[in-house]
Amino acid sequence: MDGRPRGVVGERRGKVRRARTALKGTNGHAPCRAASTATRPARRGVAWCAGLRRGWLATLLALSPPDVRGQTPQPPDELVVPTGAVVERIVTAAHPDQSYALYLPAAYEETRTWPTLFVMDPRGRAPMALDIFRAGAEASGWIVVSAYGTRSDEPEDPNADAFNALFADVQSRFQVDAGRLYLAGFSGTARVAWSFASQLRGHVAGVIGVGAGLPPGMTVFELAPPTEGEPDAAFAFFGGTGRLDFNYEEVRDLEQQLALARIPYWIETWDGPHSWPPEEVGRRAVEWLDLQWSRWRGDTVPHERAAEVVRGATQRAAGLEEEGDLIEAWRVATDVTRTLGDAAGTGEAGRIVDRLAGDRRLEAQRAAADRLARAQREIEEHMWGLLLEFRADPAALAPERVSRELDIQTLLGRVGSGDPRTAASGRRTLETLFVQFSFYQPREWARARDFERARAALAVADLLEPGSPRVCYQRAVVEAGAGALDDAVEALTCAVGAAPGFAAAARAEPLLDPIRDDPRVRALLAPPR
User: Fold this and answer.
1) What would the pLDDT profile of 433-458 be if each residue is shown by its tens digit?
2) Is it the case that residue 130 has pLDDT exceeding 90?
3) Contact criterion met (CB below 8 Å) for 310 and 68
4) Which of 419, 417, 460, 430 is nearest to 248 (CA)?
5) How far apart are CA 162 and CA 120, in angstroms?
6) Smallest Cα–Cα separation from 317: which of 300, 338, 293, 303?
């Protein structure tokens, strides 16, 4: 036994020659928008884990999957890999349809093993997702591997196959510490990361989960330390969510579960919608997880690195307190004292906690936040009731009825509130409704060739966000399937004209095949020169 996860390991094949010249990465990816979660029938799981839960719907991103046709795998003994720079694509030797972006820290050498972070973007945007964690990986000495083949919202879930292929390839080429694997995912792939971590307990030392909570049927207690004695394996969780993310409450609800399970955790929020975090949050995620490993091992926590993390978090907590956001100030300061309490400089964070503990304004903000969360849940439950009725009767989604029963005018009033928390809650709730009616429902019914219901769902989406390019895009998909080709072309023109990123999505969208050869569509979707 070599301590590696079983079922995906392979013998090392040749040496990796490392070049120290820089390769430039590219970004230029469209922003990530919208989502919801649901379950699908289970399929087989990762090679070493029978019965792995798979198949969670997650998020609509207006991007195309990467084109892997014609890729040529690089044999391990011929690959030249720079350190301290992003390698945009490495094709796996055993599976030419799978590839990944890679970052080796500048200090990388083959005389030791290295912690390795596997990043799973739900649209396979490997270089973009890798860049979020690159600075932290360089500072902490981690390898980063970012998959092109991971997805959510696909009829067939490819994530286990993608991860298996990447893990086997990376182990054959590089010095991976099989006891310090980390997984990062966003939305649907955040759920996948939790499930993979459970199946690889003892090898996965941490998860970075953004924009979603747990997969259906799983609890954090599957990764909790034993009831008695010391943990048999290190595991920590770094979570995050935008304050306008419709999954905000779901992510924040993890806190209580993690505390009960005695799993070290840190959850950050930032201004923004459903998306990966800013790069500075990605750096903090890696650095915090690295410090948690040192604490678990009983190693001396590097003074300067720990002090920098504590100092930055304490400054953020103080700034939030000054701005009047006492809930977030409390959370950040508490994260410091709870997970880095033995590091130098935590005294100021402790004073913030003590000061806010008796502040009645904090209790008032918590009570208001609880009321808003309950209101959001009530509207979501009512929405699911309408959608259940809709399956029997297409008239159930008449826009005027939806507006009345979901009290859309009151919801829009919240969005326009002068209170930031009320406005953010309103926007999160509105987005939850919008993604169902603009994406999940029309696509489901279009695939079932029930175009009447697909159009009914889009009519509600138009009510929620008039003129949205997301509605135009899905209308193009529906009308193309229905054979209304001129209407489909008009809708696609609307989508791409308002949001050019939809051109990339449309080029890879099989549901648009009926209009693909139309000269207007060819001109509209022609890649920029």
Assistant:
1) 999 999 989 989 998 999 999 999 99
2) yes
3) no
4) 430
5) 9
6) 338
- Which of 222, 317, 309 has the alpha carbon at shortest distance from 263? 222
SS3 for 422-460, per residue? HHHHHHHHHHHHHHHHHHHHHHHHHHCCCHHHHHHHHHH
3-state helix, strand, coil in the chain (%, to 5): 50, 10, 40
Q: Is the pLDDT of residue 60 over 60?
A: no
Residue in 276, 157, 126, 125 with CA at minimum distance from that of residue 209: 276
Going along the chain from its start, the domains and CATH numbers come out as 1-35+83-299 (3.40.50.1820), 302-358 (no CATH), 367-525 (1.25.40)
Read off the pLDDT of residues 244-259 as tens digits, 9 standing for 90 and up: 999 999 999 999 999 9
Torsion of CA 182, 60, 504, 244, to 10 degrees: -80
Place of tokens 């650095």: 287
* DSSP conformation letters of 177-204: EEEEEEEEEETHHHHHHHHHHHHTTTTE
First vs last C-alpha separation in the chain: 53
Distance CA 202, CA 223 (A): 9
The model's pTM is 0.82
**Where does the pLDDT of residue 76 fall: very low under 50, low under 70, confident under 90, or very high at 90 and above?**
low
DSSP SS3 for 249: helix
Least confident of 141-145, 278-282, 336-340: 336-340
Q: What is the DSSP letter of 263?
A: -
Q: At what angle do helices 360-392 and 420-435 cross, to 10 degrees?
A: 20
pLDDT at 509 over 90: no
Strands (E) across 104-203 are located at: 114-120, 143-147, 176-186
Distances (CA, A) of 21 to 27, 73, 81, 83, 130: 20, 22, 9, 8, 19
> How many CB atoms neighbour CB 354 within 10 A?
11
